[in-house]
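Form 7-S
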Amino acid sequence: MFRYASALFALVAFPVAAQPLTQAETARIDKIVTEALAADSVPSAQVAVVRDGKIVLNKAYGQANRNLPATNSLPYQIASNSKQFTAMALLLLEDEGKLSLDDHVSKYVPGITDGDRITIRQLLSHTSGLQDYWPQDYSFEAMSHPTTIQGIIDRWAKKPLDFQPGEQWQYSNTAYVVAGMIAEKASGEPLLQYMQRKIFRPLGMTSVKNQDDTYTAKFPSGYGRYALGPVRPVTPPGRGWLYAAGELSMTAEDLAKWNIARINRSTLPADDWAAQETMVKLNNGKDSGYGLGVFIRTEPRPAITHGGEAVGFLSANNVYPADRAAVTVLTNTWSAGAYNRIARDIAKVILPPPAQDAVQAAQATRARSVYDQLRAGRLDRSQLTTNANFYFTPQAIADYGASLGRFGEPTSFEPSGKPVLRGGFVIQGYTIKYPGRTLNLSTFYEPGAKGRLEQFLVSPGE
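Output:
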């Protein structure tokens, strides 16, 4: 076993296309990444940040494997982040007149359960009903042996459907294997070869490889843990298991180039980008939350997102089209949530608060300021309404200071839930965390960014 205690903080930086990040923002991002890797014992990460349609940060952290420092030139396995490329390949084939997304599966691949009722669009939107062949978060016994596309289809795509096509949304790697086979039949060439020709080369994405070709000492190794045990190298799966559902390896920088093209609606047809980002509806008219190879998020701000899990690797790729920004995080462990926390916290650094949350953000700042005052045993009464000033007697302030001051600085102070109106006030809760202790804060404030506080009550949390 190789210990990563010191390697976690190794940092390799390379020139980037633009640098509108301030020195303070860059320092905050470095702190976010290094602390998350250390906390979760993650060996390494690549991070690429897009702001205003340009790559503004492109860094590698830690050790890619025992003898290889992480650098920005090393392709990491992106797993299910590959699905958006598979879906785009099929959109491009539709442009070429070689298929329609509303064609039935049976037109291209015989023997699929209810293939005469499942459309290609349903494959790409996870609404086909085909049973997922890899729902586990570990590699099961069969994955230790090589497989073929047909092997996966024969074992899983010919089972009874989990539901009728279009009735539900349920993630299915099997559906993407079938979609990949359709793409190959329609194009007349291997899927990866078609994507290289139609997507990767036009976008200047030069690092892309089949993950099955990266299990050597020249590439990042995958790692994992049993519970909170030591970090150990994982055993790679047999060849052929991820295919169109997640076979790609690439750098964070190349994934950022794809994100920029999405933001700019460039290189590939604009209507294909739009089609990929259009939420597919279920048979009952409800939104599925998914487009063609991507999740569609509307809260707290519009985002096109996906994650990826391969054996020993986790990744997050989040695009914020309205903000012309994106965050890509690739890691080489599958036993930690650091990749998602890093992506989320970097977004907080590079993105302004959503316009609709400007008042909430102002009140959150005020709530934190008042909390810090109270734990110090003092209070600026100009922030309070008459009723709140009546509540905060000298004894109340003294008790707040004595009981809260002993905890020191909170490790986090975050809103819990959305603000709601009641009795002419806006109600907003907060969760305050310390090592080994959580507190709840209930605030009422007058509407508006400068509205005074009517209530400020701290209680034990769960």
